[in-house]
Amino acid sequence: MSGALLAIRGLEVAYGHIAAVRGVDLEVGPGEFVSVIGANGAGKSSILKALVGVTPLARGSIAFAGQEIGGLPSHRISRLGLALAPEGRGIFRAQTVEENLLLGAYARLRAGDRAVAADVEWTLGLFPRLRERFRHSAGLLSGGEQQMLAIARALVSRPKLLAVDEVSLGLAPAILDQLFAVLSQLNREGLAILLVEQIASRALAVTNRTYVVEQGRITLSGPSRTLAADPRVIEAYLGAPLDDGARSAQEARP
Ligand SMILES: Nc1ncnc2c1ncn2[C@@H]1O[C@H](COP(=O)(O)OP(=O)(O)OP(=O)(O)O)[C@@H](O)[C@H]1O
Ligand SMILES: [Mg+2]
Question: What domains can you pick out in the chain, each with its CATH number?
Fold first, then answer.
């Protein structure tokens, strides 16, 4: 895809002798909603960590908004407009919701950017629960609220691409409905999203395109609705074809 917002080529990530990512090519176009699905330990988080500069890449290249970012420190990648809501949420439990959100805008605050307050306000509009909890310690929030905070904190930097790792971890279906509804809304408003998700049915229902990762390699990729009907995906990741609700959500997509 020419004009991709994100283009990962031949990415390899290793931890000592463990090859976690073994030559991954992955693209996200402007305004696209893309998911990466795969089993435990397949290498999904390692792809995202390399993307935002948390884990070094052993080999390969990562182009973002036309610029090579492979090997750049994370604060520079963040400034270019790529934000990650990490697996496990990575929030500061002793700090308040407000303080966590302002940490998401640290670089801009330092640069004297006055729009930060408006951007915090925007994230509170997306997640009204966080407004109610604004002065509470993050550690006192429910799991769903903590996930909202992790996403909101990533959004405060007004990224061009939001990467989200395992939204669903430990959350009840009703909370997931809310979180995925916000992600879909953000995407409709033009935000590109790269979603790593273990619950394949959720990912396939909301995204445009999906990559399947197995043992550090992409083994399948294509439009999410095509993959949702692929017998290999159904057998390995869905157990059964998507139910009516998920299918109609998928069919409602452009
Ligand atoms: N910091 C680390 N040190 C050593 N090995 C690691 C480290 N992080 C990940 N690994 C290994 O790298 C491989 C890929 O892990 P990764 O976390 O990227 O997978 P994942 O697809 O995100 O899994 P999960 O679904 O459990 O989150 C696994 O074999 C894992 O054990
Ligand atoms: Mg992971």
Answer: 6-81+159-251 (3.40.50.300), 93-158 (no CATH)
